[in-house]
Amino acid sequence: MSPLVLAAGDGENPLIPPIPELVIGLIAFVIVFGFLAKKLLPNINKVLEERREAIEGGIEDAQAMQQEAQSVLEQYKAQLAEARHEAARLRQEAQEQGATLIAEMRAEGQRQREEIVAAGHAQIEADRKAASSALRQDVGKLATELAGKLVGESLEDHARQSRVIDRFLDDLEEKAEASR
Fold it and tell me: Between the CA of residue 123 and those of 33, 114, 115, 142, 153, what are the distances in Å?
């Protein structure tokens, strides 16, 4: 017969070990468990605790960095808003200065135009007076010559000539003013 059948025939259950082996196995288990609990388990717990602290510290560091990044972002946004405000202010000042400069240039141009017009009027008046004077002299000479030819004698006397010319021109001016 086979050894299995013989072992089964002894009346013992092959699944249940003998008591001495069971006791020795239990004692060995307790020794190994105690050794593991005393030596290995604290080291394992220590390593696990260190990893947990490192992970929690990493998370805390990440949160701190995220908060710092958020504050830097807020500062950047504040600086950007301030820079935009400053740019708008400078643009407004430039527009105001431009408007002031344009107004000053217009006023200066107006002043120069008025000076030029006044100088032109003065020049025209001076030219008119010079032309009037030259015309008086020419008309006077022509009138004297014509009167001398009509009268038949020379009217070379300068004082008399001036009176005759002035009287003649005054009469012409009065007639011109009356016809207006």
Answer: 128, 14, 12, 28, 41
